[in-house]
Design a protein that fits this description.
Blueprint: H1 14-37, H2 42-90
Length: 99
């Protein structure tokens, strides 16, 4: 199977989306509860909470960058394939007049 034919993406199912959202919510809630109940001072709690915010936002940013790069590569592959197909169709050695 070629590189360009495997770029067909199946839509995410509702069940998978819900499962992912619930898992994210549970993980975030558990970590927040852990930070709140941790036997440390307010400064340490604040530092951990800001670290959590930074990790979550950077994870979303990284996921978006990976998705954007993948989409750009798929578009480039499709454009390149269309150019090659056009060149091959124009350079047909069996077409009339090439004999």
């Amino acid at each position: 199977m070629s590189e360009t034919t495997r770029s067909v993406q199946r839509p995410t199912t509702t069940a998978f989306f819900v499962q992912s959202a619930i898992a994210f919510g549970v993980a975030l809630s558990a970590l927040l509860v852990g930070i709140v109940r941790l036997p440390v001072g307010q400064w340490e709690r604040g530092f951990l909470a800001l670290g959590l915010v930074f990790v979550v936002t950077s994870a979303f940013t990284l996921a978006k960058c990976v998705r954007d790069r993948q989409e750009a590569e798929e578009v480039t592959n499709k454009v390149d394939k269309a150019r090659i197909d056009k060149l091959l169709s124009e350079a047909d050695p069996f077409a009339p007049g090439h004999g």
